[in-house]
Amino acid sequence: MRMSHAQMYERVLASDASCNGRFFLGVLTTGIYCLPSCRARKPKAENIRFFPSCQTAREAGLRACKKCHPDDFERGADPVLETVEALVAEVRAEPRKFPDARAIVRRSGFGATRVFELFRLHYHTTPADLLAEARVAAARRMLLDGKRSGSLLDVAEAAGFESQSAFHEHFRRLNGLTPSAYRELGADDDATAARGFTVTLPAGYPLALLWRTLGRDPNGVTERLEGGVFRAAIRIGADGAPALLTMRFEDGGRVRASCSRGPAHGAHAVVARVLGLSQDAAAFARLARRLGFARLVKGREGLRLVQTVSAFDGLAWAIIGQQINLPFAFQLRQRLALHAGEPAGDGLVALPAPATVAALAPEALCALKFSRQKADYLINAARLIVSGRLDLEGLRAMSATRVERILAAVRGLGPWSVNYLMMRSLGFADCVPYGDTGLTSGLQLLMKLEQRPGADATRRLMTVFSPHRSLATAHLWQMKQSIS
């Protein structure tokens, strides 16, 4: 859809990366043209002109910005992004080489402010937080390789932690387990998964809000919450066979989890995602209060965004849930599971695997009351996964910028679907599902607006919550139930 000058300027003020390539911004006072997402100082509206291509901007006598590199973007190259991705890959492969965030800055070749900006834009985090997560991830790998990892002190040192106490603190915060308890998950996986493990929730974790989300489909056939026990039909392990995951919520902020089959560490990864353990709820609560929005987080400071049990579950939900009401979306999901899924135990059915969905004819889904368009979108996405052209689980390790581009190229995934999948299934921290009515209703209540904001206003209003816009969305979804 063609945008007006005012609409394009709104996108520029919001540094909207989704508009990169749709138009280019020319700053007449400096003689430079940029991408809409450029983080340089925003020019005044009267000093800008918009161009459909870099060529037309050059013909007008402008030169390319050296900060956002619009020419590289237009021809498909993105050297700055590639440099950041290579740096992050190096940090994750050998976190011990980087004693602190300053070492990451030195290795990058950029200035400190620029590095923080790039990490925030492309990975939705800071260099220090990414380094801490990389150290924990390295420790997890070593702990599962019990024969070669040595003592816990050896693991801590090999992962780059300065002390064993720092190791325990970071590990427990992101995993809900001590390093020694996690190590036990690697021994005799199937038996350990069936025997179970106990995850400790962070202090102040709002269980009531978690249960509200887990139990929102009372007639669900893939998952069920009853009396403080959550059961879900999932797929983990190399064979992807269905398994029954059970999470029992006990006193003292503990969750006892078990899985009927598959590797125990795989079951733990699902539990950690469902509980949102890696999300920095405290940081968002501090930001909200600093912005003067204490009522947004009051009574639910520890709220996390519940993650789907797998990326494909999230993809299926994003396609099924487009432009229909929630009860009907639940019905379509149930019908898909009952038609093509597999029993996992206790009367629950796992959603069909991508290969099963890829083999379906659109007519089979239409008979379940899917629209022809939804049926085509879902089957096409499954076929991309089966062919290897879309590695959904592999997206978790990529930059948010790269993931957004990959998902936006999948037929049937628009801005709402892409951002929903990134925040609800892939764990990215700074996403906004534009067009979501629950989000805009929450903003209307929080900001005391006369009407729900449109897309441009939503972008502008949500900017203040960066880099925690995913958690901001989760809180705004709760606004109708907490603000009269």
UniProtKB/TrEMBL annotation:
InterPro entries noted in UniProt: Ada-like_dom_sf, Ada_DNA_repair_Zn-bd, Alkylbase_DNA_Glycosylase/TA, DNA_glycosylase, HhH-GPD_domain, Homeodomain-like_sf, HTH_AraC, HTH_AraC-typ_CS
Keywords of the record: Activator, DNA damage, DNA repair, DNA-binding, Metal-binding, Methyltransferase, Transcription, Transcription regulation, Transferase, Zinc
MF-aspect GO terms: alkylated DNA binding; DNA-3-methyladenine glycosylase activity; DNA-7-methylguanine glycosylase activity; DNA-binding transcription factor activity; methyltransferase activity; sequence-specific DNA binding; zinc ion binding
EC code(s) of this entry: 3.2.2.21
Top-level class of the enzyme under EC nomenclature: hydrolase
Catalysed reaction equations from the record: Hydrolysis of alkylated DNA, releasing 3-methyladenine, 3-methylguanine, 7-methylguanine and 7-methyladenine
One GO CC term on file: protein-DNA complex
Highest rank taxon of the organism: Bacteria
GO biological process: base-excision repair, AP site formation; DNA alkylation repair; methylation
Cofactor(s) required, per the database record: Zn(2+)
Domain HTH araC/xylS-type: 82-185
A Pfam family recorded for this sequence: Ada_Zn_binding
Name of the featured protein: DNA-3-methyladenine glycosylase II
Species annotation: Termitidicoccus mucosus
